[in-house]
Amino acid sequence: MASSAERGPSAGADAEAKAPSFFERADHHDAVVQGLLSGVLPLKFAYAGSAAYTHDRLARGEGYQSVTGLGTLARRALSELREPGAGPVRLAEIGPGNGRHTAEVFRQLRQDKFPPVSYLALDFSETLLEVAAQRLHGDPLLATGLHHSFWDVESGPTAAIEEWRAGDAASLSVLFVGNTLGNLEDPVAALAHVRHSVRAGDRLILGVTLRDPADDVEALRAPYLTEVFEDAALEPLLALGIDRRLLDLSIVYDASADQVVGEVRLLGAVPAGEAEVPAGHTVRCFRSRRFDLDEVHAIVSAAGWKREADHLEPGTRHAVVTASSPG
Questions:
Q1: Cα–Cα dist 297/282, whole Å
Q2: Residue 98's closest CA among 76, 75, 67?
Q3: Are 11 and 69 in a shared domain?
Q4: What is the pLDDT of residue 300?
């Protein structure tokens, strides 16, 4: 286990130079308070408000090969699902993040002479949606510009997709890439919310990072032992006004659930709404689970989707699973 206290004080100096922390919505503030009190803070709050900017900085550090690998698989899946001779392709994306993966998918689709795309971005973070919109603005593949809407995929279905379609009978592909599935509190419920937000016959394109049995604990933890990751993980708690010097982040491996977990231990008492949380209290602020394909198939099926195909990139851990909605 390595904690932020063990890694030294440089992160605190960096925090003093950054823009002020903020929440996008009052209910986000209240939910983070509840997460602090309960000891479980869903990762989605590390993407919204001022946390969107720390996430953007973290995502920009992702390796180019990782981005192009997922882009290749998503492009293959979209190309297979496209109906020859059809008009503009309707594509909704859940959690485009800072738009970097989307831009790579679009670049590869343009190389394939893919038809224009009518695109809707959906995200828990309105701030991050703006970041993605700036990156994708003017992309030649976008037939009708970039549309975006707020959606917390973990809270329930959305009407935003149907409103965007505005009665158009064209089928829809829903892009859900990255390792988002492994960060969700309840992957089955989230994918069921997606299914209940689309029509019969619409397709899901789900990107996942697969487990590698050869990895040891230190290899699993290593990507998260950086200052930029620490910034992203702690930002929701900093937005509550907590002094960073009171937050000690540890990255641990939970063997029982086969996941890497970020745990914050309070080094002093902090206020939480009308209550006070004592020193020594811990909060799980991050989780990253990896799956094998059988587990992904089980999650997709349990959410009510009909699995169709798997796309894998040889020599990498990336996979894309496609499925259709039975209605």
A1: 33
A2: 67
A3: no
A4: 98
CB 116 within 8 A of CB 142: yes
Residue 12 identity: G
State whether 300 and 285 are in the same domain. no
Structural domains counted in the chain: 2
CA 258 – CA 323 distance, rounded (Å) = 25
Q: Using the Cα atoms of residue 41, residue 296, residue 56 and residue 14 in order, give the sign of their dihedral.
A: positive
| Model confidence pLDDT, tens digit, residues 140-193 | 999 777 899 999 999 999 999 999 999 888 889 999 987 789 899 999 999 999
User: Does 206 have pLDDT greater than 60?
Assistant: yes
Using alpha carbons, list the distances in angstroms from residue 104 to 49, 64, 75, 79, 190. 25, 10, 9, 15, 25
29 alpha-carbon distance from chain centroid: 20
CATH number of the domain enclosing 176 = 3.40.50.150
Please tell me whether the overall predicted TM-score, pTM, comes out greater than 0.70 for this model.
yes
At residue 88, what is the residue type? P
The DSSP annotation for 72-97 comes to HHHHHHHHHHPPTT--SEEEEEE--T
Q: Compute the Cα dihedral for 90, 313, 210, 288 and give only its sign.
A: negative
Contacts of 115 (CB under 8 A, 6+ apart): 82, 86, 87, 88, 89
If asked whether residues 73 and 114 sit together in one domain, one would say yes
Between 214 and 100, residue with greater pLDDT:
100
Residues 183 and 246 in one domain: no
Task: Quote the tokens at residue 164.
Answer: 């965007």
pLDDT band at 3; cut points 50, 70, 90: very low
Distances in Å between the Cα of 327 and the Cα atoms of 181, 188, 190, 191 are 22, 17, 16, 13
